[in-house]
Each structure stands twice: as structure tokens, then as C-alpha cells.
User: What shape does this take?
Amino acid sequence: MRRRVVPYFLLGPGAAWLLLFFVVPLYYLAELSLNGGVFGSYEFDWHWANYSDALSLYDTQFIRSFVYAGLATLFALLLAYPLAYTIAFKAGRWRNLFLFAVVAPFFTTYLIRTLAWETILSDQSPVVSVLDTLGLAPEGHVLATGGAVIAGLTYNFLPFMVLPIYASLERIDVRLIEAGKDLYASASQTFFRVTLPLSAPGVVAGTLLTFIPASGDYVNAQFLGSASNQMIGNVIQSLYLKQSDYPAAAALSFVLMAAILILVLIYIRFAGSESLMGEEAV
Amino acid sequence: MSGGGAWRWLREHAVQIIGVLVVLYMLIPIVVIFAFSFNDPAGRYNFTWVGFTLDHWSNAFGIPELNEALLTSLKLAVLATLISTVIGTLMAMALVRYEFFGRRAANFLIVIPMATPEVVMGSALLSFFLILGTFSLGFQTLLIAHVMFCISFVVVVVRSRLIGFDRNLEEAAKDLGASPFTTFRLVTLPLIMPGIFGAAMLAFALSIDDFVISNFNSGTTVTFPLYIFGAAQRGIPVEVNVIAMILFFFTCAAMGFATWQQRRAEKMTSVRPEQEVGVGAGVPAGAPAAT
Assistant: This one.
């Protein structure tokens, strides 16, 4: 009999904290998003117009957020996979040093890292003049363009892509890869038929861990972009903290959350859910 | 034909070369931050290299507002880490050790905050605080928020350690007459300590680095990231780079310590009779595949 209540005691404090300070606030956010009126006298009156206004006024920022986040996720995947593969199979005794280098950026503050990119991509920087001679920096500058924002997002969320892919590659039984070679598969056949499918859970987890924070981010667009590169996070932040238009900001937050949820569900349907939830259900 | 060998070497090592390049790319900003902590900028903006100076390192704690922000961040991170690590570890124990009604819901409750963009969590919490009106925005709301977003990560890290746990060790302690609490204190806790320590480090890093959620719920309290954000408009003092690097080296040292702890714990678990040779467990990883 005692054993039955033990898990609830253990679970209690944390579950209460998450319910009270994560789930309940979402309810308040929903309520606020249906408030009408003007600042100082917002009132709940099922004001659905907040939603239609949010979508019609800020549809460009929404689309831009998902395009930027999507591209950043793609670039992060292209960079992260070879790195994770190197760490898992080729690094040998350097493995821990590599892993350290992957998490090292986390040890410097997110904002300072982004500001460092502002320095690196500024017009006077040698990096930009190299890009310019290669024809990759139109009119000689990179900063305050969509490219800079995407580059910043790619950089900042790269470790979230590397670590899950590494974890899934590391778990692969090397004998399976050797079996592929023994059965006369070429190196690339072995990779595409054995290694890549076995690392799919890591790729799915990594893309989600990159895409979700990137689509809601406003730091990179703030420091590396211009007024025409604003993402939906910038709009929510400014409506909430500068213009005090809480209902509109709340409606936008909800639409963002719903849009991400739908995209993620579609993605998981295609990518296979067992790779994601299977781990969690252990 | 003389270049053929070099070309082949490049082709065979292409993946490693890309891997090393990506690692270097990840380290570029750290090098830039470090280099610019020795810069002697002409104006207020620390964006172009002017000249080398150690002034800012000797004056690292010479800006009162910056010190105060840093102190707030440290206090916040320590408290958020302690609270989230304790309640997160308890949750992980419940989820791994017990089969109970509502387990799936609890798992879901833990995953969903990690899948929510920070800007949504930040604005939801602010709505909650504003409408409720019982909490005045400041240190306490920051602490509530930081504990909230740290819990899930603590649970995930500690749980992964618990899953690989050999329950026989606890059984042995019980057979030798230890009470459940003594077993937990002398057997379970030391063995999962590296996991708990890792989780605490992660929570600390998440808290001290958080900007977005803090931006919404800080009121007039200023943390280190919020100070940087505010200062970015008027030009960031070089001392910020210095303090960022001090934090960096401090975290590296803590990481080194954690790794050392983990190795010790692994040695502890490996000092016991060879486990029975089961199916699949007996074949060494490097064994050649049968042809």
C-alpha cells in the first residue's frame, strides 16, 4: 500500500511547479489573447479579432521566422552530421576534447556570442572582405541582412544538433556497419543503408531542438539583422514589453506555439514517432 | 600523378577534415571574445581592434552596475540549480523506479516545456504574474521562472543515469540489512551522483545564460545577460568580455571536475565480480564479425 503513494510523493513538488508555473500561465496567456479594449482597461470578451489581426498584420514575420529557422536547421544539420560522425567513429582518444569543444560555446553567454558574430561580420572585418572577393557579400556588407541572421541562428543552435546525432551514432553497433562492408556494400551504400537510418532518431531530435528555439528567437534578428529581418519573436517582445499591447502579443504567442506544434506533428509523422517518444517512454 | 596520393588522402579523410573545420568554427566567437577582452577601443564601441591593453582585466570588477548584475545572476543560478536539481531528481526517481497511474502524463508534462519556444514561456509567465498580481516582478519571479525551465532538463539527465543503474547493488544492501533510506544514502545516491552533478551543472548554465524568459519577467532586476542587452544600445564595456571569459574558465574547471567525478564513480561500479556472461554481452565490441 505504501509503495503506491511513494511515486506521487516523489513526483509531487516538480509536477506542482510545472503545473502552476507552466500549464496555468498558458491558460492565462489564452485568456489574455481574447481580451479586448485599450491599454489600462483590457477586458475578457472573446475578442477573436486579436487572432485575425495578428495573422494579417504580422504574416510576413511569421513566414520569415519559419523560413529563417528552417534554413538554419538545414545548415546546422549539414555542419553537425560530419562533426558528430567524426566524434563518434574517427576521433579516438580526441573524442572528449571534441565533445568539450562542442559544448564550450555554452560556457560563454548567448548574448555575447551573438555580439561576437556582430564583430566578426561587421563591415571592417577581414571575414567580410574575403566573402566580398568571393562575391558572397553583395555591396560589401553582411551585417543587417537575412543571411547574417540565419548564420547567427545556425551557429547558436548547432550544439543542439550535434549532441543528439552524436548520441545516436555512438550507440550504433559497429558490427552492423562491418556486416554491410562484408556483404560487399560500398562505403556510401553502407552509409546510406545502415549508418544513416540507424542515426535517424538523433537527426529527428536534433532538428526539433534546433528548429523550435530558432523559430521563436529574437536575439539574432535584433543584433545581426535590420528592421526588415525582424522575426515573430521580435514582434512579440516589442508588443509585450514596449507597446504594452498584451492581447495582441498573447495571440501571437499562441499562434506561434500552435504553428510549431502542427509543424512538429507533421514532421514526426514523416520521420517516425518512436524515435522521439520511444526514448521518453522508457 | 604526383598529386594523386595527397588527393586520395584528402578524399579518405574528408569527413574528419570537415569535422575539424566545424569544431574550429564553433570556437571562433570564443577566440574573438577573448581577443577583444584585451582591446583598447577608441570610442564606446568594442567592435574594431585598436590596441592591446591589460587595463580591463585589472579593472574587471570596476563597474558597480555590472558587478551587481553578475551577483544577481550568480545568486539566481545557485538557488534555481539547488531547487530544480532536488525536485527534478525526485521526479526522475519516480519515473524510472515506479509504475503508476499518470506516468505518461507526467512524462508529457516534462517534455512539453522543452518543446516550447522561450518567448512563449516568457510571455505566458508574465501574463500569469500580471493578471494574478500576487507576485511583484523581480528576483522572486525570476527564480520561479528559472526553476520552471530547469526542471525538465534535470529530469532528463538524471533519468538517463538511473536507467543504466544496476539494481542488484541495492538488493545487496537490503540483503545486508540496510533500511531503504540507508540504501538510498549509501548506495543509490553515490552512484547517481555524477548524473545529479551533471544535471546541476546544466541547470546552472541554463539559468546564468538565460535571456529571453528573464527579459519578460525581471521587472527592474538586472541579471548579467540583461545588463549586456541594455548596454548593447550604448556600447558594451570591455569588462563584459573579461567577465564572460572568467565565467568561461570557471565553467571549464567545473566541467573538468565533473568528468573526474564521473570516472571515479565508474571505477566504483566496476569494482565487483564479473557479471554473468549473457547472450550478447559476452562479445567484446571490437570482435571481428564472422564471415
